Amino acid sequence: MADETNTPRPVVLIADDDRNTREGLQRALQRHYTIRLAEDANRALDQLADGEVDVLLSDLRMPGLDGLGLLRRVQAQHPSTVCILLTAYGSVETAVEAMKQGAYDFLTKPVNLDHLEMLISRALHSRDMETRNRDLQAQLDSKFGMERIVGESPVMQRVFDMVRQAAPTSATVLIQGPSGTGKELVAQAIHRLSTRSRGPFVAVHCAALSSTLLESELFGHERGAFTGAVARRKGRFEQADGGTLFLDEISEIDPAIQVKLLRVLEERSFERVGGNEKVEVDIRLITATNRNLRTYVTQGKFREDLFFRLNVVDIALPSLAERAGDIPILCDHFLREFAGRNNKAAPGITPDALNLLTTYAWPGNVRELRNTLEKMVVLGRGEKLTARDVPMNIRESVGGVGLIRNVGGATSGSLADMEHEKILAVLRKHDKNRTRAAAELRISRRTLHRKLNAYRAENILPPEAEVRAARLQP
Questions:
Q1: Which ranges constitute the DSSP H helices of 169-273?
Q2: Do both 287 and 343 map to the same domain?
Q3: Domain for residue 148, yes or no?
Q4: CA distance 71 to 62
């Protein structure tokens, strides 16, 4: 029952062609609810269009559109409104039909007013619980629908926003980004957050198949279509019916397949290889490529009309180097994952080791980082992963191999200290030219700039006079 606080009172609309019934129900309910009146279904629809109505009490028999017809309209146009039907001519068949149409309940006249108030209160409570559950589920989906995609950097937050915006729609999505950036994970997130989440998610890696095999894989084939086709086979389009089809490496498909794919997108139907029967499908298409598809169009390698069909929503994934700030949380995520998978306690990671991983360029992007951390977890012996647990190719790439070999030996100081010294020495060598220094250190200029800012913040950069003096030393 509605309380008498400052909270707006629920609105109850009473639709009945009998004036005495309308006014009697109004007197009984107006203490707890805001009441609106309508003498027929059309006026009730006008009232609903003017503002939100929480509960509709409607007579079953009214001139013009009857109560069941009004119920159908309200369910279609105002689904959050609770509908209760009233009639002096009740029957089991009518009640069953009303409940099938979406009525909350069905009461016969004369109405027991106490029972009606209890029914309205219970209906509003039930509706509010459903609304809260939907809101909670939406929040959970928004947060955890992308739980496998880790990132806090601004560029990744933009990706998350685009996924959340695109997912509830039926739009075709093109995901572009370097290999190893997680394009299939993004496609899966879009599927999980979409209205098709209960349908299948079917992935096809186009570059792994020849043109002939890809056509059969996508569209299926009839028995006898080619040597070895001993039975009819459904293709991936049919397997994805009602769900999402993800085509990875779309840039690599043959021009003949491009034509057939364009036709499917336009007509939502196709023929199996070797067949004439039209097969209709209801799928959402998501494609991905590590190429610049627009450049492929310019070069004549990809059909422009198909490109525009695929590029309705374009999501660009950054390389790991472009979001290096995410590396620490990615490391934490993968360390926990692989520790659990290998029945180990999740190891920590020393600053020196993390520094190496953060400095490395990661040409293989997140996939390479993931594989590296799995190796480190499997082969690591201590409670913490150290610089010595970082694979040699990474240590050599960041220019610290000579220093690392001395860790634990005669050389004093931490790896971080030695890195500071090395960077400053190279800067002195190149007269503080950061571009040349970064090239010799085999790190990006951006990484060098970030490290220098960190050293400055930690007060470990030598005074400018000391740097100048160091340059004059032989």
A1: 183-192, 211-219, 236-239, 255-267
A2: no
A3: no
A4: 12
Phi, psi of 280 (to 5 degrees): -100, 140
Quick check: 366 and 182 in contact, CB under 8 A? Answer: yes
Q: How many domains does the chain have?
A: 3
Q: What is the Cα–Cα distance from 82 to 103, expressed in whole angstroms?
A: 7
Instruction: Measure CA 33 to chain center.
Output: 41
Round to whole Å and give the CA distance between 470 and 468. Answer: 5
Cα Rg, the chain, nearest whole Å: 33
* pTM (2 d.p.): 0.58
285 versus 3: the higher-pLDDT residue is 285
CA separation for the pair 127, 104 (Å, rounded)? 10
Beta strands in 67-114 (DSSP E): 82-87, 105-108
* Mean pLDDT computed over 427-445: 80
Q: Are 389 and 380 in contact (CB under 8 A)?
A: yes
How far apart, in Å, are the Cα atoms of 197 and each of 131, 168, 202, 314?
20, 10, 12, 21
Q: Of 318, 338, 356, which marks where a domain is finished?
A: 318
The CATH number given to whatever domain includes residue 188 is 3.40.50.300
Average pLDDT over residues 36-40: 92
The CATH number covering residue 399 comes to 1.10.8.60
Confidence of residue 407 (pLDDT cuts 50, 70, 90): very low
Residue 147 counted as domain residue: no
Name the residue range of residue 401's domain.
322-472
Q: How many Cβ atoms from other residues are within 10 Å of residue 390's Cβ?
A: 27
**DSSP label of 57:** E
Per-residue pLDDT tens for 289-327?
999 999 999 999 999 999 999 999 999 999 999 998 899
**Average pLDDT of the chain, as a whole number:** 83
Tell whether 287 and 212 lie within a shared domain. Answer: yes
Beta bridge partners of 159: none
Question: Is omega for the bond preceding 110 within 30 degrees of 0, making it cis?
Answer: yes
Spatial separation of the C-alpha atoms in residues 223 and 161, rounded to whole Å: 46
> Beta partners for 59?
86
* Closest of 228, 244, 224 to residue 236, by C-alpha: 244
